[in-house]
Structure formats: structure tokens, C-alpha cells
Automatic annotation (TrEMBL):
InterPro entries: DNA-bd_dom_put_sf, HTH_17. It comes from the Bacteria. This is Helix-turn-helix domain-containing protein. Residues 3-44 form the Helix-turn-helix domain. It holds the Pfam family HTH_17. It comes from Candidatus Eisenbergiella merdipullorum.
Amino acid sequence: MDYMTLKEASEIWGVTPRWINYYCSSGRIPGAVKMGTVWLIPKNSQKPADKRFKSTRSKEGETK
């Protein structure tokens, strides 16, 4: 299986590496494994939903 690092995932998903680290440590990215101090994320993983916002509202506050 191919893996990507926190930095690669952050560039693809448009969030900071700190958020990716949070997703991995909380188990929200299936298949992510920690090798020493580095998280490895499967390349085919999808970005987890942002739980700070309801699904009926976008980040800017507009209804979908």
C-alpha cells in the first residue's frame, strides 16, 4: 500500500499538518499508522468531514 506524510496530505486536502495529525491521533483516518514519530496515511484516503460545522451549512455560513 502507498502512503503519504502529513505534509503531503495537508497540501492535497488544503489544511495544516497539525489538523492532519489531529485526525490521525483521533482515529478519523482509516488505515493511518504511526511509525516512530511519523504518521503514514494511505494515499487513497479521503479527508474527514470537519465536525466544527453542520452538514447543512458551509464554512462561510451559507446554506447548501
